[in-house]
Specification:
five-stranded parallel sheet; three-stranded antiparallel sheet; globular; single chain; alpha/beta; 8 strands; Rossmann fold; 6 helices
């Protein structure tokens, strides 16, 4: 089935305060979109709405020919601004847990760890990793259990210049194989992307 992302006339509010209204976006397989806007404009809320975690005030969110409930359960990764890692676990335990949860296996977890140069760090507790290493561990979950839609909240922070470039190559490969990316950013994405200002 054809998978895409179609947002029409979306309006969101938070705590009774309107964030934006009338937002529309169409993304197909192989495309990326960079969400920009001031802090508090609603970029994170938009990602959460696409993921089904908050309900819009108005408008629709669709996924091409795929039913929204199925797309959200089986075809989508959400990487928040916070890494969402349990710091008392080892990196190996954390990667294994999320890989199984999202439908991957041990071999895919090992491959993801190698891709993000985490193999030598897997027996360390997450709390002992640097901020950049934790972000790489969080990103590794996405390729350990591949899903076509990536919703990313500030994915480049706190990666150094070298890892930003390497993440760009990983993103480009994801798009090349039919994925799509919707990312909230302050810094430019290291791949060609449609731009959409939120709350502008």
């Amino acid at each position: 089935m054809s998978l895409g992302l179609e947002i029409e006339g979306l309006a969101l509010s938070r705590g009774g305060r309107p964030l934006f209204e009338g937002l529309s976006l169409s993304l197909q397989a192989g495309q990326a979109c960079a969400l920009t806007g001031r802090n508090g404009a609603g970029k994170t809320s938009l990602l959460r709405a696409v993921a089904g975690l908050i309900a819009p005030d108005r408008g629709t969110i669709g996924f091409g020919a795929v039913e929204p409930a199925r797309a959200r359960a089986e075809d989508l990764h959400l990487l928040g601004h916070l890494d969402g890692l349990k710091t008392s676990r080892t990196a190996r335990e954390e990667l294994a847990f999320w890989t199984r949860w999202m439908g991957g296996d041990e071999a895919s977890a090992r491959s993801a760890a190698a891709t993000f140069e985490l193999t030598a760090l897997l027996d360390l507790e997450v709390r002992r990793l640097s901020a950049g290493q934790r972000r790489r561990l969080a990103l590794a979950r996405m390729i350990a259990a591949p899903r076509p839609i990536w919703l990313l909240d500030e994915p480049l922070s706190p990666l150094d210049a070298g890892w930003r470039a390497r993440l760009g190559a990983i993103m480009a490969e994801h798009l090349k194989t039919g994925g799509l990316i919707l990312a909230a950013v302050h810094d430019p994405l290291p791949i060609p992307a449609i731009g959409l200002e939120v709350g502008g």
